[in-house]
């Protein structure tokens, strides 16, 4: 599901002969990949037990992942996707659904008992930050090498 955003931008850029959208597809892919790598590394470092494992008498009948909890990888990827798409196409009709989707993913992780609210918040900050830094790095590289993509 996370690859739908870069794939959609790539297809739209290809069909419309828009190099900017194709470039933003790559930016989105790097942001999502970076988010996955950093969230996985943080899980190994923090060793936070998942809520349904830590409180089995409060959260009963739940089964889920058995790896560590912080940060939420799902929230990280969802917010990286929403942020990179919103930066690529800064229109309200793109931003509102993107972040609504990301917030829904975050809520679902808590509802299912597989993440604490702080896990989701950490994932949201991580994903949004990764996407923003990737976007800014792309702008810096374009400026440094004086490259403006067609359609920008």
UniProtKB/TrEMBL annotation:
Q: Which InterPro entries match?
A: PAP2/HPO, PAP2/HPO_sf
Q: What is its main location?
A: membrane
Q: Report the Gene3D superfamilies cross-referenced here.
A: Phosphatidic acid phosphatase type 2/haloperoxidase (1.20.144.10)
Q: Which UniProt keywords apply?
A: Cell membrane, Hydrolase, Membrane, Transmembrane, Transmembrane helix
Top-rank lineage group of the source organism:
Bacteria
Q: Which residues are in the Phosphatidic acid phosphatase type 2/haloperoxidase domain? A: 24-135
Q: Which SUPFAM superfamilies match?
A: Acid phosphatase/Vanadium-dependent haloperoxidase (SSF48317)
Q: Where in the cell is it found?
A: Cell membrane
Keyword rRNA-binding belongs to the record:
no
Q: How does it sit in the membrane?
A: Multi-pass membrane protein
Checking SMART domains in the record gives: acidPPc
List membrane-spanning regions.
Answer: 25-45
Q: Which PANTHER family match?
A: DECAPRENYLPHOSPHORYL-5-PHOSPHORIBOSE PHOSPHATASE RV3807C-RELATED, SPHINGOSINE-1-PHOSPHATE PHOSPHOHYDROLASE
Protein name listed in UniProt? Phosphatase PAP2 family protein
């Amino acid at each position: 599901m996370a690859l739908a955003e870069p794939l959609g931008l790539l297809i739209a850029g290809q069909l419309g002969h828009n190099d900017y959208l194709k470039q933003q597809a790559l930016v989105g892919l790097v942001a999502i990949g970076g988010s996955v790598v950093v969230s996985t590394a943080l899980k190994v470092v923090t060793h936070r037990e998942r809520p349904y494992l830590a409180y089995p008498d409060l959260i009963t009948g739940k089964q889920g992942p058995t790896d560590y909890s912080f940060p939420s990888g799902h929230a990280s990827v969802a917010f990286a996707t929403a942020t990179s798409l919103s930066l690529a196409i800064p229109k309200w009709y793109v931003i509102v659904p993107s972040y609504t989707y990301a917030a829904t993913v975050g809520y679902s992780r808590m509802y299912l008992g597989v993440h604490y609210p702080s896990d989701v918040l950490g994932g949201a900050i991580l994903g949004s930050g990764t996407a923003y830094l990737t976007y800014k790095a792309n702008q810096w590289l374009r400026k440094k090498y004086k490259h403006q993509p067609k359609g920008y």
